[in-house]
Design goal:
The protein is an alpha/beta fold. The protein has a single domain, classed as Rossmann fold. The chain is 52% helix and 18% strand. It contains six helices and five strands, in the order βαβααβαβααβ. A five-stranded parallel sheet has the order 3-2-1-4-5, with helices on both faces. The longest helix has 33 residues.
Length: 164
């Protein structure tokens, strides 16, 4: 059986390990001649906090403020991701065939990652793993673990020590 990987989604936060996970996905993309899609999901603000702020600012002012800030933050995040991609591409031995595509969305990470993976019909999802300890994992769970349970796509988890 021949393994065919045409599209890879790498979902990443902007932690210090972002570049390592992105490079891993870029190298996979080179090996399989696959299109890489880099996704960052910005978390939404808790509704109770928004309600409290809306009482102070007024709902219309808050909506305008959010729209402007979300747009600016999205653009700055895209710039950061493009800079990481450029830096990591320079360090690679192989040349990428397809320029990576970058998307930034607001929302809950797990549903957004799954939604983008479905929309793009990717063959593989690449995620970084955080080593936060057993207590954190037991109470808060993990994006990677939830993605693994909810998708039928190939998922590659890049542990913290890979590529150091």
């Amino acid at each position: 059986m021949e393994m065919k990987i045409n599209k890879i989604l790498v979902a990443k936060d902007l932690s210090k390990d972002s570049s390592r996970v992105i490079r891993y996905a870029l190298e996979l993309g080179c090996k399989f001649h696959a299109q890489i899609h880099v996704l960052h999901v910005m978390p939404t603000v808790d509704s109770s906090v928004l309600n409290m702020v809306a009482l102070t600012m007024g709902p219309d002012n808050l909506a305008k403020f959010n729209a402007v800030n979300e747009s600016e933050l999205s653009e700055k995040t895209k710039e950061q991701l493009h800079a990481i991609i450029a830096q990591e591409t320079e360090l690679m031995e192989e040349e990428t065939i397809h320029p990576p595509q970058v998307e930034v969305h607001h929302g809950e990470p797990v549903p957004m990652i799954l939604e983008v993976a479905d929309r793009l019909d990717v063959d593989m999802i690449v995620l970084g793993s955080h080593s936060k300890g057993k207590l954190h994992y037991a109470f808060l769970g993990s994006v990677a673990e939830k993605i693994l349970r909810k998708t039928n796509r190939v998922v590659t988890i890049v542990p913290p020590h890979v590529g150091r």
